[in-house]
Amino acid sequence: MDFARGIMICEICHAEVVDNENAESVQGSKDRMQRFNHQMRFIREGLQKSEAMVLPAYVPASLFLD
User: Fold this and answer.
1) pLDDT tens, 11-62?
2) Per-domain residue ranges of the chain
3) Which residues pair with 16 in a beta bridge?
4) Is 46 left (phi over 0), alpha (psi -120 to 50) or beta?
5) What pLDDT shows up at residue 48?
6) pTM of the model
7) CA distances from 47 to 40, 51, 55 (A)
8) Which of 10, 12, 14, 32 is 20 to 30 Å from the Cα of 51, by its Cα?
9) φ, ψ for residue 26 (rounded to 5)?
């Protein structure tokens, strides 16, 4: 941040950082993220329900073969 000029400056190239919040590519990324989150809600809900489950101890199949 360049407080003297009141603008944000890139630390690498020292150019002014331009806000592109409304750019089409940014909006498309937000739309994809919203769809992804919407589709993942069933998986998240299922995982939250399974948190309270107590799973039985693992018993190797080799113990049953003798």
Assistant:
1) 899 888 887 767 777 777 778 888 899 999 999 999 999 898 888 888 888 8
2) 1-48
3) 9
4) alpha
5) 92
6) 0.40
7) 11, 6, 14
8) 32
9) -70, -45
